[in-house]
Amino acid sequence: MKKLSVLMSLLLSALLYSCSTQDEFTANPQKNFDALWEILDRNYCFFDEKLPADSTWRDYYDKYRPQIKNGMSTDSLFLIMSQLLSELKDGHVNLYSSFDVGRYWNWRDDYPANFSRELTDKYLGKDYHIAGGAAYRYLEYNRHASDSIGYIRYASFASSLSHSNINAMLSRFSFCKGLIIDIRDNGGGVLTTSDHFMQHFLPRKTLTGYISHKTGPGHNDFSTPLPIYVDTLSGGVKWFRPVVVLSNRGVFSSANDFVMKMKPLKLVTIMGDRSGGGAGLPASGELPNGWAVRYSSARMTDEQGKSTEFGIDPEMWVSLREEDKQKGEDTLIEAAIAHINKIYEEIKKKNRN
Amino acid sequence: MRTIRLCFTLLILMLPMGRYPVMAQHTPTTDSIVGTSVKKGFASKVCDYWNRITALKETDNPIRYRTSLLGIGGLIQHDSYLSPLNYGGYRASLMSETYTPLSKPLLGTSLRRFAAELDAGMTLNPAQNAIYYSIFGNVYGSYLYKWSPVKQLHLFGGPGLRLVTGGVWSTRNGNNPGTLRLYSDMMAEGMITYRLPSERWGLLFRLSDAVSLLGVGFSQEYGESYYERFILNTQGRITDRLYMRHPGSGFSNRLMLTVDIPLLDYATMVVGYRHAYEFSNMNQIHTHETSHSLLIGFSILTQNLRGRKNHIRYSPL
After folding, report:
1. Given Cys at both, which of A29, A38, B103, B245 links B215, Cβ 3.0 to 4.6 Å?
2. Interface contact flag, B225 A228, Cβ < 8 Å
3. Cβ contact (<8 Å) for B173 and A284?
């Protein structure tokens, strides 16, 4: 029996040791660069929109591959790989290592911020409420108490926001004539949260866009676009009064999706700057040296089939003015209040006639 | 003339069929099959064959052979939907098998095999900085026909069916963190058993293999997210992505070698080895899993005494 136990222990050790893939690890710069280029080549979905018409993804391989040398430092390899990825000008394309994240953020950084945290904090005051990941209050700052307008600041779609959170906020604004949803600098998060939020403003089941995934490694291998419908709520608080969504270049990914889905709604006005885009659904892969790569793998469009990868234009362009900032006023919030008041008066006038 | 010929043909066919109920009253033996086959008509043979298949049932109060095994071993995984790299690590398995003898078999003695497996795996990428967690449930059912060329040596073979469900979860990926596996296969199974002719050390050696032949499975498309497939899609979430499995698109093999060791009069210990291989190649998504496991457990013989008849027949009260 003792001999049998020893034999089985030896066999088990052999079996466990034989099933490791550690010997497939390689830090070889060329192999890792090639692996990165190939992952993108087979899976990235926006080559036609992102690369200049006279260039191909192979051209970028030829451009950067000669810079990859045996014995180069890890930092240099990471830098060149990040440069390769930056050619795609996509905020959803990243390279992850234990010491850095390769990124392209020029879709936001190259444009005016049109957002000041200091100013929004003034409008929120100190006694604002928090529902899930959203901060909200009835606006009083800058003598706006009489305007009767609700204000929701939602900074990230990665923060949870349930139907009950939204119900709670909207029901507390039941006496308000309009609502401002401030999603400036919201870099995205969970896509389904965007749907949950917009359901409260939908009168009926609505076509909001299309999604198309890759069906093979070819650059033009795409599925037939699948229509995306969002249904209205069967229960809960629905809001059918004027709404202004404040947007800027920092609105990306699922926040961009929220703007895209809200824009066609009759009582909703998108105000501010063009959103940052990011209409690709990201997926992940990895390199033999353990670095991870993220890329856009499925393309989403609006309900008319138009790409929103480069952002969505607002219905009212408003920029944050320096002189307003000096006065402690947020130009966009002030414009939103004025717009809601105007619409409210128009509706009142229409109803009177 | 054609009508007369047709009636005559039907009459010829009807004659042996008319004899069929009489034949069916007797339990046919192998000798009687050989002895009377030349006299039977075609329809009679078909009916006879059908009768034998449908007559498969458990023997009166059968003694079942059951094993319960725990497996621990190594696992290599690849799933191109999650990562282009191979992952390696460990697998723990729980297995249970039941062999039930059947009476009135088609070709000699036969067994009905039912097996269930639960496999849990944890594997790491080559850089050891990302993990796959996997869990799979396998259920098998098969009929094995028995041939005994030598007294202690038995050969078994027959068709089977299995259902597999499970998934792989990656700790690294964001929007493509896992894959679902769902498929069913027709199997071909074979087994050789040999028992040592010793009263005291009647070790039972068992070598079995099961390979998949044809089946149906689920696979999402190349770059299709589960968000799109299962949340945005409202119809045909699974059924629209079923594919035909054959050795080119989906294949599996289970090879198992076990030895039953009687521990004096207390119990029968089973030790063994299992090699499990799964492969699929659909929608340009490649997956494969290879595992080598060491098995240890017990086998028992059971007799079912439940039920009205058995209760009356065997109850000591």
Report:
1. B245
2. no
3. yes
Interface mutation vs chain A, best among B78, B86, B87, B232, most A CBs within 10 Å = B232
Q: Which two tokens stand for residue B4?
A: 């007369």
Other Cβ atoms within 10 Å of A168 Cβ, number: 16
Q: How many residues does chain B have?
A: 317
Mean pLDDT in residue range A266-272: 96
Cα–Cα dist B216/B301, whole Å: 35
Of B84, B174, B283, the CB nearest to A294: B174
**DSSP H or E run through A208:** strand A206-213
Tell me how many residue pairs between chain A and chain B have CB atoms under 8 A apart.
138
Residues forming a β-bridge with B121: B91, B134
Handedness of CA A298, A301, A307, A311 (dihedral sign): negative
AA letter at B255: L
The DSSP-derived string for A289-330 is: TS-EEEEEEEEEE-TTS-B-TT----SEE----HHHHHTT--
Establish whether this prediction's ipTM goes over 0.85: yes
Are A298 and B224 a contacting pair at CB < 8 A?
A: yes
Mutate which of A3, A8, A21 to test chain B, going by most B C-beta atoms within 10 A? A21
pLDDT tens per residue, range B259-295: 999 987 778 999 999 999 999 999 999 999 999 999 9
* Alpha carbons A277 and A90: distance in angstroms, whole number: 9
A60 to A53, A70, A102, A219, A270: CA distances (angstroms): 13, 20, 17, 15, 37
pTM reported for the whole predicted model: 0.85
